[in-house]
Amino acid sequence: MRPPLILSASLLLALAASPATHAQTATSRPVGYLVQTIPSGQTRSFSIPFDADLSSLPGTVGRLTAVGATYVENSAAGWTPGAFSSSATPYFVRLTSGVHTGRTFRITSPANTATRLNLADDGLDLTTLNLAVGTATGTGYEIIPGDTLATFFGTTAAGDSLVVQGAGDPLAADLLQVWGGAAWLNFYYNTTWSRWARDTDAITDPSRNDFLLRSDRGLMLTRRGTTPLTLAVVGRVLATPQRAVHTRSENALTFLATMQAGDTTLGALALQNSDRTAGWRASADPAQADILLVWSGATWFSFFYNNVAGHWQRVGDPTPDRDGFVIAAGTPVFVQRRTAGTSADDKTISFPTPGT
Fold first, then answer.
1. Residues 6 or more apart from 111 whose CB is under 8 A from it?
2. Exposed site from 7, 31, 96, 109, fewest CB < 10 Å?
3. pLDDT value at position 111?
4. pTM for the whole thing?
């Protein structure tokens, strides 16, 4: 994710026509743009289906030479110690080759060294992934800038522009909801305190400016302003699948970004396929099947894969075949798995590479 760019249509088209380039990349990736509008008084789900440009810091792309339980290394990286480990300016590592292409991990503390990145491993021992290591043959990676509430939506500090409507009262401000795994975390920009806050915060609570917004997760935004809120974003289209980690305890929900730069369908996502999701539970009975939920703008539509009929269906819908149901670009999905997983692969979902 990256700060939204509120641009004219002509400039968006010009940017989209130009390939993204970077000194350390062997090939360019196409640039895409997406305009998402949240009408006044309404709630929309959204995500950003693009990457920010690669960091200009050294060692942004390379190959792994060592892997530990919670870290990866590149012996030739020459990283500036601590450059990727600040909570105010987060970074992620995406694997770009091998069987785990598309997996993304947040760089965290302890601070990175010249050759080592410590990662938030999503509960995995990274050595169990059996990543290839070596100067010429190791698993490829790229380092991608991430975002926080402050870097994506802005603030009013030091002349920074605030994209959403702030207020001293959370009931008057635009409300951003982030799924916390069991409940929504609600954030708004408090103009009295000049900082991002949770709706339950008091003035003595810490600033939420550095709250991490994961690019592989969806968001909900309620527009309290009197005019529609338009978010126009530009970025690099993914060149890999989006391999997202999801909660795999029984009946748990995870709000995932599909990273699809264009509209897609349930049939094209094909999450029931073994190369997309390990152990997706299909059934003619929706009470026994894994569920995919999509926000309609007013309610959640629940879908399941009927393995007897051989297509996706909406729960309670008289129209049986929903393979052609369109999921608009940038629309995230909730995934609910009926049973717990036992391995690292059980806890990931692979969304298709955009455009495939």
1. 81, 82, 85, 118
2. 109
3. 96
4. 0.89
